[in-house]
Specification:
- Helices cover 57% and strands 18% of the residues.
- The protein has 200 residues and is α+β, with helices and mostly antiparallel strands.
- Strand 3 and strand 4 form a beta hairpin.
- The protein starts with a strand and ends with a helix.
- The model has no long low-confidence stretch (mean pLDDT 86).
Length: 200
């Protein structure tokens, strides 16, 4: 039931010296077939993935550990799983130690968290953009109100002009109040959505 296997591969001719017993259970490939032809490993992955793995192996300088992530399917199965591959070169034996671990569940969790993080960032950016726009929308009538009140103050001896400026200030105040009410309504709707999402 183990979800990992390892191989010992001779560097000089890529002959497989050892295959862990659970290899066939995970891959659907006979150990004998693999030992006679290492190319059988390609049956696990798509041609595109195989090319990527081969390219990364060629670029690797054999120092440290090479880590790869791959989507794979057991031979004869259409179900796609996810695995991580670790390759180390052992100088003492002139062999590669290849360890393959199925981490499909962890990958699904990690992928889900990435999607949630991306969505949270989008929502955060949308809120930032909204607040920036609302800040501008509120500032405009506020500046107008202050300007009209200042002019009314300056023309306090002229009732006609004062009345005009006060009417303009009142009109801008009504516009500002409507804008604030709209923002509060949107906030209530958003809060209601969040509460509904939390209900199991």
């Amino acid at each position: 039931n183990r979800r990992d296997f390892f191989l010992l591969v001779r560097q000089s001719d890529l002959h497989i010296l050892y295959v862990s017993p659970n290899f066939k259970g995970m891959t659907g490939i006979d150990r004998e077939r693999l030992c006679s032809d290492i190319e059988a490993l390609k049956l696990m992955v798509s041609p595109k993935t195989a090319r990527r793995v081969i390219r990364e192996l060629k670029e690797w300088d054999c120092s440290g550990e090479l880590r790869l992530e791959v989507d794979y399917s057991a031979s004869g199965s259409e179900q796609v799983s996810h695995g991580s591959v670790s390759v180390r070169f052992e100088e003492s034996t002139a062999c590669y130690l290849v360890v393959f671990c199925d981490n499909t569940q962890e990958y699904k969790i990690r992928d889900g968290l990435k999607r949630e993080l991306g969505q949270a960032r989008q929502e955060s950016q949308a809120k930032t953009d909204f607040l920036s726009k609302m800040s501008h929308e509120i500032r405009t009538p506020m500046n107008g109100i202050l300007g009209m009140l200042s002019l009314a103050k300056a023309h306090v001896r002229d009732p006609k002009q004062t009345g005009y400026y006060l009417d303009r200030a009142e009109s801008l105040s009504q516009f500002l109040l409507t804008l604030i009410n709209d923002i509060l309504d949107m906030s209530r709707i958003e809060s209601g959505k969040m509460e509904l999402e939390e209900v199991p």
